[in-house]
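Deviation from plan, reported transparently: uridine-diphosphate-N-acetylglucosamine complex.
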Amino acid sequence: MKITTIILAAGKGTRMRSELPKILHKIANRSLLQHVYDMSRQLESNTIKIVVGHGAELVTETLKDLEADWIEQKQQLGTGHAVQQTIDQFTDSDIVLILYGDVPLLKLATVQQLISNVNDQSLALLTVKLANPSGYGRIVRNDAGQVIKITEEKDATPNEKQINEVNTGIMAVQGEQLKKWLNQLDNSNAQGEYYLTDVIEMAVADQINIITCQPETEDEVLGVNNRIQLSYLERIYQQEQANSLMERGITLKDPMRFDQRGSIESLGQDIEIDINVILEGKNSIGSHVKIGANTQIKNTIIGDHVEILANCVIEDAVIGQGSRIGPFARLRPESVLANDVHIGNFVEIKKSSVASGSKINHLSYIGDTTVGSKVNIGAGTITCNYDGVNKFRTVIEDGAFIGSDTQLVAPVTIGRNATIGAGSTITKDSPENQLTLSRAKQMSLAGWQRPVKQEK
Ligand code: UD1
Ligand code: CA
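Because the crystal trials were delayed, the predicted structure below was used instead.
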């Protein structure tokens, strides 16, 4: 059984009031269209066709990595017209699945159930009962309860408007039948559009059964038309991710104030996440990790027993087991910390490795540096790695002690167990085991008088 999925994505999305085509707006940092694509990608033997129109160039350019064929609908003359553009894209024996690019939370299980109901005797239609059905196409049934047609809101009689079972727009049809009905569509209706929904009445006339399925929750079939709905679906999506993490043994202090915009590659147990934490990209989190409030973590591997205190920003980093970061620390890309490393407040690390047991506890910038093990870097230490054009490396060997308020002007090496006196500007390599300092000698002037203000 071959499936062709057609994702309708040509609409403008006027109510988004945006320069960006609607389907490029994001939920959890993934475009609406990408959500639909990723879900349908999981169906077996499936080919994906995406109908684009408004902003087609930008859409296809932005999502050029999708394994899908792009079909342009030059004018948006209705959902039926959109599907007509794909008529030579599927074969008679295919099951054709119609999805909307702006309905991002639809679940694979729902689609699979829909597909399992299609054959040459029946068409499967996803419907939902809504407390307020206004705006949607209504599912009209006969006295025996069989679906006989769909009536759009604008074409509905007062009686039909009372029906609260609505069309989600999502359906699965056999290819041969769909081709036949697409060729019969016309636009003699209130909106002068080619309605895909008219195929239902045609199917009934051809004695095809209309099998209706329902999603598990209404949220699955909600579309995005404006930014209020976008934010609503973002929260629904985040809530689902939060629930799944909690089911896997993670404590979230407040699931309403947690955002995951990406994937978790591996996850330990007994992890505690405080409020307002954002996980982006691909992260791995070991067991017994604690993440403090207001922290943003992107593409990072976090070992077991790591503690990240509040207000840290961490990106493309590796944090070894038992290390402690923050509060207010920033780990920039290519920061690789071994086990039991301490990075304290107002410390920025970039493109540097720090070996086990080393401490950089206060107010420092460490960039392009190799820090050995058991190194202690005092408050206010700065690696001067940049001359305005080139970047240079600093090497701080095992056991070194860097006194506070020191500048290490790269390229420079601080030897094993070397000590650097506080307040030094180090421009030359410092030998191991010795004290090196560059500091003007302290002096005191006896009898010196502070200036005093003259009374006028
Ligand atoms: C459609 C259904 C309605 C259903 C509702 C569910 C029809 C005639 N009506 O109505 O029964 O209750 O969806 O949300 O099918 N699109 C195109 N090209 C077009 C027109 C639309 O690609 O020419 C795409 C849109 O981008 C969107 C989807 O099709 O993703 C639905 O279009 P929309 O205009 O929102 O349909 P509705 O009128 O709301
Ligand atoms: Ca709509």
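The chain has a mean pLDDT of 97. We consider this an acceptable substitute for the interim report.
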